[in-house]
Amino acid sequence: MSVRVGMVSLGCPKNQVDAELMLGYLADAGFDLVEDAAMADVAIVNTCGFIESAKSEAIEEILELAALKKEGRIKSLIVTGCMAERYRDAVLEEIPEVDAVVGIGANHTIAATVERVSREHGFGVYGEKEDLRMCGRRIRTTLPFYSYLRIADGCNNKCAFCAIPMIRGKFRSRPMEELVEEAAQLAAKGVRELTVIAQDTTEYGSDLYGRRMLPELLNRLCEVEGLRWIRVLYCYPEKITDELLDVIAQQPKICNYIDMPIQHVSKKILRAMRRPGDRESLTRLIAHIREKVPGITLRTTLMTAFPGETQADFDELIDFVREVKFERLGCFIWSPEEDTPAFDLPDRVDAETAAMREESIIDEQSRVIDECCAAMTGKKLEVMVEGFDRLAECCYGRSQGEAPEIDGKIFFDTDGKKLAPGSFVTVEITDFMDCDLVGRLV
Description:
By secondary structure, the protein is α/β, with parallel strands linked by helices. It has helices spanning 13-28, 52-70, 82-87, 89-94, 110-116, 164-168, 176-188, 206-209, 214-222, 242-250, 267-272, 279-292, 311-324, 351-376, and strands at 4-9, 32-34, 42-47, 76-81, 100-102, 123-125, 146-150, 152-153, 172-173, 193-197, 229-232, 254-259, 297-304, 328-333, 380-389, 394-398, 410-413, 424-433, 436-441. It contains 14 helices and 19 strands. Strand 13, helix 13 and strand 14 (328-333) form a beta-alpha-beta unit.
């Protein structure tokens, strides 16, 4: 009887692509893949290790599966991903139920590791970070009509709060021809929406070609037949050029959507974070983006309670949120990550104040979202159908303004008409609830 293998993948879409590649290696080796790791012989947890909350989620998942192992419901437990790479043998020491830890540079050995845990326990398999393979057969875990295209891995930005460079290594771009070929293969399999990802997409090409080449790559991807939407995430604000904005504005396949994590706007805090810019320059950039690409949806991520953040710094940040009105915004509390430059900084913000600041940002953004959603009422949007909600008795999907697995949905009445998932329809927006839009099929 073949060995059943199940995987739980946590964290960002980049980690999800790693998981899909590992599933491809396992399928090629003849293992029986099951969707529920709790029903497997060998369970794999592909972890995130970016901040404390992500590590806590990963540990909780590992412990749940470890309990099933004790009960005899699963035979072996393997940990992969960013937390495995970052903490390596410490995972084995702290959680003895784990049979093997695989660093990201050894992801391609996952099939051999699954075979090995049947006869050996408590070992690690590691490689150089640069050995991470970014192409190959993927068993995609997204809905069949959208997928991620990872164009690079690693990061050269040395933000004081971030552990990614030590986990993932230096920035490494994939060759453009390889990416165009992968996009064509995905389109041939029915993918209609492609989301371009990397730790820093705007840096693409600088290592391979001597200059940043994201605009040229996007133009090439637009030539791929079958793709309807191409979305770009993780753009660093200081690297968003007019050339990039022109491509977004002029290419009909490129979604009018930019994700640009800015973290903060206080000049003092940004310098402590080792980030450029300030409130004035960011306000100017956002106005310029909206002028160059009318109707664009802007998403950002903010960090509050960074060491040294005063009430005045926070007031500047929340006032900026009110003023600029990002259509999409996430906020998280600074997490002290060992071996990062910010770990030993003085003047930490106490936990209660940090939680209040995060909640204030979220509350303020909720008001902004209500304004943005209200402004959408009466507009007609192209929507990609994702499925049918039996509870609400209506279809749901997304427009160019909603990234998959991150943003809200559009729920719409079809007046009894059946729609195929992955198809594109026109929806008139009539209302909204929370972060979701409500409409009707036109």
